[in-house]
Structures are given as C-alpha cells and as structure tokens.
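Q: What structure does this chain adopt?
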Amino acid sequence: MQHFLCVYVSSRRIALYYNSDDGASTLNTFRPESATPTNGVVPFATLIQNDSVSTGTNFAYNESLKNAPNAFFDLFSLDGSDFDENKLRMNADEIPSIALKAYLANAVSEVYSVEIDLVKSDLPVMLAFTNDVESVKRNIMIDWFKRDGFGNLSMIDFESELLSNIQLNTDFACTVVSDGRDVTSSLYIRKSKDLLATKTMAGVGTDPRMKIGSEMLWNSLNNTGYLSFEHELPILQKYVSDFIASGKPLLDKEIELSDEKMHAAYLIKSEIESRANSENGLAPHFRSFLSNENVKSSEVSLVLCESSESASLLSNTFSTEYSEVLNVTERQWLNVFTTIWRSAKKVEYKMKSIVSRKLANAAAIRRWVTEKNEFVDVLLRVQEESSFATDNISRATSEQMRVENEWKNRIKLGDFIGARALVDSASTTDVKSQISSLNKAFNTLNEYAQFVEEVNDVDDANEQIEKFSRLYSGIKESKVKAENIENFRGDLLSQTDKIQDNLPLFNEKIEELRKTSVKATQDRLIAELKKMMPEWYPLPIIQTSKVSVKITAEVTSTGFLFMKKKKLHVKVDFGDATIPYRCVLAFFTDTVSRVDRDKTFVEDLNDKGESLFGVIEKEYNLPLPEMPSCGKKGILTIKLWPHESETVGINSAFDGNTCFCEQ
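A:
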C-alpha cells in the first residue's frame, strides 16, 4: 500500500485526509480523539510544553484562548521574535511548520502505526492552501518541510480545486474563507478557474453576535472589577458561540473565567440577534471588492469554503444579493481531496507532478491584475513614441530597395560609372535620431521582458502580450534596417569597386568555361565564378542538352479503404547534373505544344540558383488546380533554364522532360 496525506491549511484551521487501504475509493478524514472537528476541520492551535508539541487539540485551543504564553492559535500572524520553552527554541516563522508537523506525526502514528521521521523522505504529502495564507507564508512552510527531510512534498490551491468539483451557473465564482476574525475572498473566472483577485477584509469576518453577545455577557457579570474585558474576551466568545449553536433562547448559568472562579451569567438570544442585524457591515465590503474588478454581484456565485460559527450569518447576509450562495458540505470537501489523491495515484505518487497550474499561476495572475494598467500604458506610449521613427525607416528602406535594384541593373550592364553616380545622388536619411528613438523604445520594452515571461500563461494577458511581441519584433527589425541605411551608400560603393576589380578575371574564367566540355573542370570553374561575384550576378548560359532529367509520377490512394484521398508522388532524378539551373514542375491538361499559364499548376522546385544534383521528391494532394478529372491523363513537365536569366518565362525555347500520369 502507498500511504498518502492531503492536508488542508487555512490561516486558522487545518484538516487531514489519508488513504487507509488499496480498496478504498475515497479518502478518510482524520479525526483525532483529542479534538472535536467540524467537517474534519480543527483549529490550527498548538501547545508547546518542554520538548513536546501538540496541535489541533481542544486543550491547545482552549489554552490559546486563555492567552497562555506557550499556546498559539493565530500562527501565521505571530511576530518574528524567538520562542523558548525549555528544550525548544524556535523562530515565530517556524512555529506554523513545527505545529503542522506535530499534527501530521500524530496522524501517521494513529493511522499507520509508524513514526513520521522514518517515512517522511518518501511519504507523499500534499498541502492544500487557502488564499488567506499568503504566498510568502506558504513558501516558508514548504521550505521548512523540505529542510526537515520531507522529500515527496507539493502544494496546491484548494479553492481552485474546490471550484473544479462543484457545479455553478454564473460567469464568476467568489470563494469566501473566514477565520472568525477576517474574511478572505478570491474572485475566479468560473470556466477557466483563473484567479482574478484576492482580498483579505480585516475584522469583518467576526460574527457580530460574538462581540455583541460577549459585551452583554460581560455586563451581566458581578464582581469582575479586577478583570479586564479585553483579556477575558476569548473565553466570553467561546461561551457565546456555544450558546448560539445550542439554539436555546436563554443562557442562565455560571461560567468560569481566567481567574478560575465561577461567575453567574445571563444572556438572551433574541437581543443578540436584534443588535447583530443592525450592525453587520460585511456586505458593503464585498460590493466594493467586486466593483473594483468590474464584476456585478448578479454575475457571481459565493462559495463559503468551510463551516464556522459565522457561516450561517454569512449565508443569510448574501443570499438575497447573489445568484448563488453555496455552503460547502463535508462530502464536497472530501471529493476535492479524493480527486487530488487519484491524481497522485496516476503519477505513482510523485507529488511534484501534480502541482496545480492555478497555484503555479496564482502569483502571475495577481501580478498581472496589479500591473496590467501600467503595462498597457507603457505599450501605448512606446507605440506612439516609436511610430514616427519606424515610419521614416520604412520609407527610407523602400527608397533604398529602389536604388539597390537600379544599381544592380547598371552593374549587370557593366555601367560602373552610372552605378556610382546613382549611389552618390541617392537621397540620404539622417537615421541617428531615429535610431536613438528606437533604442529608447527597445530598452523600455526590455525592462518588461521578465514581466511578460512571468504572466505569459495568464489568459487575460494574451492580447497585450501579443501586442508587446509585435512591438518588440517591429522595433528590433526597424533597428536593423536603420543600421543598414546608415551603411547603405558605403556598402554599395565598396561592392561596386570589388565587382569591377574582379570583372577581368571573371570574364577570363567564363571564356575558359565555354571552351571546356570536361564536367569536373566545369564544376570547378562555376564554383570559382560564384565566389568572385554576388549571388545575383549573372552566370554563363549552359546548353540544356548537357542535362539529363528523368521524371516519374505515381498516383496513390490514401484514407479509409483507400477511397478518401489521392496523392500524386513525383520523383525528379537529375543524375549527376551540377549546373546551376532553375527548374519548374508544371502540370498540363493536354499537350505541351504550348504552355498556357491559365491551364497549368506550376511550382518552382529550385528558386535559389543552387546546383541541381540527385533526386527531388514531392507529394501533392489531388485534385490539383486545373488537373485532369479522374480517369484522364495529364502531362508533367520539368522545364529548366539557367539561373542567371531571371526574365526567361515558362514558354521559353528550353525544352523539358515529360511523363504521363493518370488519376
């Protein structure tokens, strides 16, 4: 059997789920004998005595309510001072981790009968955090457990997993976690489960009945002059909570305070309810939270993530304003952790393989929501500031291309004087200021490159990231063009000198090439000619009769029962030809006496002027444009012409090799 623990961790509550045997289809809820869990959830309270730590027990919780110096309840809010208790010394940041390990150790001992330190290196442990535990606190806990030797540990976003296991009918879902003091609400897009925003509302999670009832209870007491209300408040709230949960209309009994004496107390439930209804200020906080995200309450389902003493009040507060208010049941809770468990089984309990994408993206989504407006403004500013420079560079590049094409034509004709005069007279653009503007814009975008990388997987960021990419690529391309423009005239004049200097030897090589019929000599001379001149410079015409080309074509059927599709497989064998020909593969509907462009499908097989050698194979899906219908014959032709003659058309006098194909 593979052991497995999944731990629910909120700011003030924890719960643990485990598998008991191979045949179980769901997880079991750990219910320690020393605690009274609700839905398996116990207070995240711990008591430290000597070298012993106990967590989640009734005694630890009650001692923390009495403000015992070695008992802690609000663990994630402890200050950074060190704690000393006999043999134990720890920093406040470590206490939540130490407390949680103690709870896990108790569970492993009870359900698996083994010491946790003996199995922690391999024990699969998943920590499911709620959003009221800040990411920095989560990371501190994860790091502590890893340092302690837990080697198969991971964490997951509980609330996004919860939303994946319940049915809701609105566009948005807002999860609510209340620790009895604060309320943390998290707004999600329901379909994608992407987290849009999280906000902790301090002080509004307290059930007003707790404070009101505590004040009434305190006022009913006698002989309390030596006690303070603030010091006794946690104890008073516990009595009020039990009273409200009991459903009784009246409390008339003695209660024990921190002085360990019994005091007569009196409380009426209807009076508490009456004052609470008029003082509840939770709803406005939620309206403000949703308004900041431009979301209407009618578009939102509220999901109360855990049972608490204020759950019924929260439900009553929101039920009339929101489309749905869902109190999560214990079964739904268990379904979430069972789903996580099954995912762990699929990856053989390698916990790092199932880290929630939502959790992994949570920080990115929060950062995107926080910095989105600033990023959008930056992109608009960069676009405006760089547009003038990019437009000028684009116009200058077009003029540069026109001059360069005319310069090439004059060079091909041997008019070097005219080529130089053209370059000298070409209009110039002062690109220094344009380059400065582009560099400034480029540097600004580079400052946001890390931000873009971090939010790259956030769905809501896609449009702006695409805009960033277009701007980045466009400005980078304009920078290259600007640098080319700066060097344009000098480069052309330098090339003119080089070509003119090489021309006498180039012509000698051409004459030598025309006089030889030895293939090896031809190959050597052509290679030398290519090195002497730019690739666009004309090479000598070689007769097509020196090249032998063999064409074969075969039509094959593919798909279901070989009836769905037909493919034309063409094989062109150039043998040992190495002359730099261009070639075109043409499909004709009838004869080759005249090639009509309107009735052909033409593909340029070699448009780079490379030497043809060996075999070219192509496959085409049929029917091709203007190919014969099924059952008729078509003619394939390879037309060859020297690469240097770019004006030679398909109807040139150069003959091609043909073959027949039949569909």
